[in-house]
Design goal:
216 residues, alpha+beta, Immunoglobulin-like, 2 domains, four-stranded antiparallel sheet, 2 helices, globular, disordered N terminus
Length: 216
């Protein structure tokens, strides 16, 4: 408790103001303490989840949709609700790829141990759905070449129901096709300096077949 001395109005005023400042400081400290407690309750993480923005996914997403959102979050892609999962291919028991798309573009999500780790090469904007035509209802997207096998990815119009990759030796491998995307695991690599390394044979919903170089 502070004692007020009789040294004139100036002295009394100084001591009274000191007491008021102490009171306000204590009140402010109490308020901060209350906010800190409230903050701990408000932002406490739910067990089994993380607050890391790079790994947050849509709460209701499961399966390939969950993997897709994990990839989009890892690459900090905006407007994630515009994306949807397409064709998926597994290289082995723990590694694979998932093609994802919007109404305009597509990208390839890398899958490891059931989780999306990021986009292979980022967003791909030089091959988009607006360039597809009736004469060429498919287009090259990207490839991953391994020593003894390769994975190729592409996009197609909505009426393409089947895709086969035809290698230099004439042998064909069926691709997985879904929602205007396709992916195929084959033995022949795709060399960007040789546009005719592989060909694509696409089957349309009306039974018509359209073929052409993969890279066009």
């Amino acid at each position: 408790m502070t004692r007020v001395t009789q040294r004139g109005d100036g002295g009394r005023e100084h001591l009274v103001m000191t007491t008021k400042k102490l009171t306000l400081a204590l009140a402010a400290a109490a308020a901060i303490g209350a906010l800190a407690v409230g903050g701990a309750v408000a932002f406490a993480a739910v067990p089994g989840t993380t607050t890391d923005a790079a790994t947050q996914v849509a709460p209701a997403a499961t399966g390939n949709a969950k993997i897709m959102f994990e990839c989009l979050a890892a690459d900090q892609v905006a407007n994630r609700a515009a994306w949807r999962p397409g064709a998926r291919v597994d290289v082995d028991a723990t590694h694979g790829f998932l093609v994802i798309r919007t109404d305009k573009n597509a990208a390839v999500c890398v899958v490891e141990d059931g989780h999306g780790t990021g986009l292979m090469g980022g967003l791909i904007d030089n091959h988009d759905y607006g360039k597809l035509t009736a004469q060429r209802p498919f287009d090259y997207l990207t490839s991953m070449n391994y020593p003894h096998q390769s994975v190729h990815f592409g996009i197609s119009t909505a009426d393409v129901t089947g895709v086969s990759l035809v290698g230099p030796d004439g042998k064909s491998v069926a691709a997985t096709v879904k929602d205007g995307t396709f992916a195929v695991l084959a033995k022949d690599g795709e060399n960007s300096n040789e546009s005719t390394t592989n060909h694509i044979r696409a089957t349309l919903a009306n039974g018509q077949t359209v073929a052409g170089p993969f890279r066009g």
